[in-house]
C-alpha cells in the first residue's frame, strides 16, 4: 500500500521523470492508472521478475513492461554470509541461493 501511495504522490507532485515499478502484482494497477491520469506525459515502466509475464492488463503506450534478466538478479545477490561490525552474522537462506 505504501509503495502505491508513494508512486501516486510522486506522479501528482511531478517528482522525477518517470515511475519504475518492480512487480507484476495486479494490486498496483490502481496506482499505475492514477499516476497516468495525474501526469499523462510521465511514463511508467514495469520491471517483471524472471518467469513472470508482463502485467495482466493493458495500459496505454505510456507503460513499458520488460523482464529483469536472471543474470542481473544473480549478480546483485549479497554474499552467503554477512557480518556486522558488532559481530552479528546474517546468513542468506538456502532457497535464495546464488
Describe the SSE topology.
Layout: H1 2-12, E1 19-22, H2 29-38, E2 44-48, E3 63-67, H3 70-75, E4 81-83, E5 89-91
Parallel strand pairs: 1-2, 2-3
Antiparallel strand pairs: 4-5
Assign the structural class, choosing from mainly alpha, mainly beta, alpha/beta, alpha+beta, or little secondary structure: alpha/beta
Order of helices and strands: HEHEEHEE
Instruction: State Rg.
Output: 17 Å
Task: Let me know the largest β-sheet.
Answer: 3 strands, parallel
- Globally, the shape reads elongated
Instruction: Output the strand order for the largest sheet.
Output: 1-2-3
Which range best describes the helical content: under 10%, 10-25%, 25-40%, 40-55%, 55-70% or over 70%? 25-40%
Strand content: 15-25%
Structure write-up:
With 98 residues, the protein is an alpha/beta fold. 28% of the residues lie in helices and 20% in strands. Helix 1 (2-12) packs parallel to helix 2 (29-38). The protein has helices at 2-12, 29-38, 70-75; strands spanning 19-22, 44-48, 63-67, 81-83, 89-91. Strands 1-2-3 form a three-stranded parallel sheet. The chain has a two-stranded antiparallel sheet with strand order 4-5.
Short description:
This protein is α/β, with parallel strands linked by helices and 98 residues long. The chain is built from three helices and five strands. Strands 1-2-3 form a three-stranded parallel β-sheet. Strands 4-5 form a two-stranded antiparallel ribbon.
